[in-house]
Amino acid sequence: MNxxxxxxKANLLGRGGAGFPTWLxxxxxxxxxxxxxxxxxxxxxxxxxxxKDGFLLENFPEEVINGIVLAMEEVGAGKxxxxxxxxxxxxxxxxxxxxIGKKPIVLFKxxxxxxxxxxxxxxxxxxxxxxxxxxxxxxxxxxxxxxxPTLVNNVETFYCVSKICKGEYNHTRFYSISGDVKRPGVFxxxxxxxxxxxxxxxxxxxxxxxxxxxxxxxxxxxLLKEELGRPVSGAGSITIYxxxxxxxxxxxxxxxxxxxxxxxxxxxxxxxxxxxxxxxIEKKNLDKEVLSAILFSLSEASFCSLGRGAAVPFRGFLKxxxxxxx
Amino acid sequence: xxxxxxxxxxxxxxIICFQGQTILEVAKKSGLKIPNLCCHPDLEPSGGCRLCxxxxxxxxxxxxxxxxxxxxxxxxxxxxxxxxxxxxINLEMIFAQHVESCRDCMRSYNCRLLNLAxxxxxxxxxxxxxxxxxxxxxxxxxxxxKSQKCIDCxxxxxxxxxxxxxxxxxxxxxxxxxxxxxxxxxxxCVYCGQCIVHCPVAAFEEADSVKSVEAAIKDKKNFVVFQxxxxxxxxxxxxxxxxxGTAVTGKLIGALKSLGAKKVFDVSVGADITTIEEANELxxxxxxxxxxxxxxxxxxxxxxxxxxxxxxxxxxxxxxxSPHIILGGIIKKYVAEKEKIxxxxxxxxxxxxxxxxxxxxxxxxxxxxxxxxxDYVLTVHELACLLKNHSIDLNFVKEENLxxxxxxPSGAGVIFGASGGVTxxxxxxxxxxxxxxxxxxxxxxxxxxxxxxxxAEVKLGDVPLRVAVVNGLxxxxxxxxxxPKHYYDYxxxxxxxxxxxxxxxxxxxxxxxxxxxxxxSLYEIDKQKRVRLADDNPIIKELYEKxxxxxxxxxxxxxxxxYPQQKDKITIWKKQQNH
Lengths: 326, 579
What we know:
The structure holds two protein chains of two kinds.
Chain A (H helix, E strand, L loop, with lengths): L2 H8 L11 H10 L6 E6 L8 H8 L1 H15 L3 E6 L1 H15 L4 E5 L9 H8 L23 E5 H12 L5 E8 L5 E6 L4 H7 L8 E5 L6 E4 L12 E6 L5 H15 L5 H15 L5 H14 L3 H16 L6
Parallel strand pairs in A: 1-2, 1-4, 2-3, 5-9
Antiparallel strand pairs in A: 5-6, 7-8, 7-9
Helix pairs in contact in A: 1-2, 4-7, 9-10, 9-12, 10-11, 11-12
Chain B lengths: L4 E6 L2 E6 L4 H7 L23 E4 L6 E2 L10 E3 L3 H15 L16 H8 L16 E4 L3 E4 L8 H8 L5 E6 L2 E6 L12 H5 L5 E3 L3 H9 L4 E6 L20 H11 L3 E4 H22 L5 E2 L4 H10 L13 H17 L6 E7 L3 H5 L15 E4 H10 L21 H4 L6 H15 L17 E8 L2 E9 L1 H8 L9 E5 L17 H17 L9 H9 L4 H8 L11 E4 L6
Parallel strand pairs in B: 1-5, 11-12, 11-14, 13-18, 14-15, 17-18
Antiparallel strand pairs in B: 1-2, 3-4, 3-5, 6-7, 6-19, 7-10, 8-9, 16-17
């Protein structure tokens, strides 16, 4: 059985956040006809509350690199990249280089900004340009890095690929748990586990009134206690907020700051919308109509998924925690 | 490659279009209006302003029409309550970036933002001005950047990169990434002004000379003379609603006379002299096989580009002065003497399609003793403002003729305004000089057109002359970096796309279609001219007989020198100036 079939059978979904079927991504790149192809391992990890890729690079770098090699062989790529945020680059470069040895895989230090972890923006960065997202289509599978078909997968995805090919995959994922908890950290548990279950198993289920942000400490969705019967989404993080002790304006301000610093400022909804949102939060002046228009534009009119995703936590938080339906 | 014809539907209208086109292109061609701000036909769509959103049947979400390609059978809706809502909030946020100063703005009578504000019934008080404390900057004596009007579309940065200059760049400011001048010591503006004609909201402007010229006209001591560049006659009409490229030479002269010009001359006459001098120099260099290829030098942005970035090529530039500087010198020396006017009283105002000409006239080596050959430069756009300030409408002005002391230009002088024009004019003269034939070749169609790099081989007597014609500085850069001496003998470079017809001082909008119309119009004028060779122009013969008859005079009036340049100063005003 070839690798793509194995991935399909294991029903592996990308662990970077978007959850796209990995086998399909591979198939598209494999099918593309070109003189060159690239594989990129995305280790840009930069959202608050998400730190499982760092954990994997620390503890299982061989598996990750094995996954990259398998991908290169399968799709026919002559060169691989590991795109690391600056912290990971400094921390793991020597060890990674040692494991890579003579394999045609190079390390690349990520540009500043959250956006430069977006898969098209990171191609721009490697090409030496400003890290801005590209128009899609064309998709990376047709025209990626330097115009050649390119496969971009997350660190954890490559780890899973390696495990699947070795027959050691048991449908687990790595949960980053943080916030108002007793035992923050990375935990390996079944991917289908309910959030409540994950919290209980890891000894992190709060004994106070709380809400959760699932799938990213900035772009993740807000869930109330009674909504924790579902599995985690996005990049697999769970952040707990103590309802009583969390200042809603400070929390929303943090999200706005994070996105404003991390975005590329190219499109109006994301650049201006987040700024205006921040202004309203600072003034504690939450005009429902204006908020609704800004969030509508952010989620519907933004250029890339960063902007579209940025609306998610605000909308959920305003509705569920602050009782403002926008 | 033949493009495949496909059928789509926009707002219920069936449209035949081509694969590869964007929705916005198709809509525009079909006369459908989809609002947009940041999209410019010269640049790749950035999809930044998010105003051109449309929805497509059976697809989730909204799509930017500027960057979504049409597909066969696509059913597109360009307007709906949701789309309206998105456009409105985006426009309100864009408007809150742009600090309006409509009273002082030279483009307020045709402002895309104001038009959209009206159409979408914006609430302009919803947000405070985000950029009210942003500075105004001036680059050299030519370009002004009012950063508090910038809406971050980055067209200026893109065009500056495309020009191979890279002076404008994206910089960090707090949590924003914004447009600004490079602080690198080896990067500077060459004043081509392409940022001005590519800015949708007039955040970039030419340094204003309108007020100074108005004052100069008012002062009765002055004898104000206007001269206008070749391409101005085919573009100024656009500022008064005439079709792109309409030739309005007579009306332009009439308008300048009504402004109070004592005399009006045509820079194309100066171009005829440039042509003759340049053809001579070319023949000389070829004879000696020295300093080849010879580069043209009538474009001051190109000259500055060489002086700043490629000083090793300075010696290759022809020493001939640009046409308006030559004619300015002739006005202050020859006309002054002939008409018995104190040259110190003469104020020469050049109407140019160009911003870098404002910089050129500040170059000290061009001075004739204490006299500046040219005192002020107005762009086409500034002239339009000046005329409007004085309620002079070009449509209703009586046509007048040039003052005949400096005669009429040849067709060769007129085509200087289009890329390839200088080369064609010089070739006409060089071949005449070499062969002495009355019916020497006139048309060199290979060097015409908007193509960015044109190449031709022309027989100069027995010798083949290898010519390149380049427009757009980015293309010039690629020529300079690829050993030009191996490939060419004569290279014409114009900094702006299409040459002066696409200049940074030309009316907005500009696009390749508009530039083409302006150029065609110039070649039409040339075709109609009885005299098409600079050498055959009676006034030129007269000038060489009566005035340019000594080597020293020719040298002083018609030739100059170039030097390696340093970065110019950037003036920054913290708050917007009221002027």
